Amino acid sequence: MKFKVFFLIFGLLTAFANTTFAASGENNLIDGFYGSGKIKVVIAGLAIVLAILIFYLVRLDRKLGKLEKEHGIDTKK
Description:
Mean pLDDT: 79
Number of strands: 0
Radius of gyration: 21 Å
Low-confidence stretches: none
Strand content: under 5%
């Protein structure tokens, strides 16, 4: 129940924020990143974070698979 309320509030706030910021029509932050060439740094940072996250999740999945195999747990039911 708590999660439903949280997601409802989060969804409403996100929708409100999108309409509020979209109505202003100004993209100074984005224009500034493109103009100064810093957008490449932002994209590189995001790519590094996503690569680390994917690496961690794959490694975790392999470890869990190995543990399941050792203990004879069948997850394909």
